[in-house]
Design a protein that fits this description.
Keywords: Membrane, Transmembrane, Transmembrane helix. Helix content is about 80%, strand content about 0%. With about 190 residues, it is mainly α. The longest helix is centred in the C-terminal third of the chain and has 54 residues.
Amino acid sequence: MIKKRSRFWTVIFSFLPGAGHMFNGFMKLGISFMGLFFVVLAVASFLNIGALAFLAPVIWFYAFFDCINRTFQDDEEFYTQEDYFLFTIDQLANYDFGFIKRKSLIIGAALVAVGVYSLWNNVVMYLINRYDFLPREVYSAIYNLSSIFPQLVIGVLIIWAGVTLILGKKKQIEIREKEEGVNADDCDQE
């Protein structure tokens, strides 16, 4: 039930994304912010990709100021607001996932790579360390390489995306120049 509560406690609870919303009765919105915030942190931590964690402060600030703005509204405005999920199953069901079909090979390869990496870190590295299959120096080198592997992959993907964008833009310019050349030839004939 949406109910305007103490502004002081709302501000205090707002320091945890979604908690201030939940304190005021916006349960769906609160659980959405809280879930999104902690999922981003968990994925960034699990995959050891610090670059993904940049989303956490964005979500935190948005949730914090959204809660503060809702709380400090007039009573009339406050009680007209509806509680909703940030993402609903209906929205996801109606979303055009055509890009997944077009890029299924890339997405499948990425999922396989993440699975292999996870098994490597959680099973193979444990067994190597536990049963001393390799000398310590070799194990340390393999461990260090496997711990920075996600960052290496992300770096390579960023470079690949940049080169693809540059080459794609170059092709667009060449196509445009050819079209303009054809149009100029048509004008000369008239």
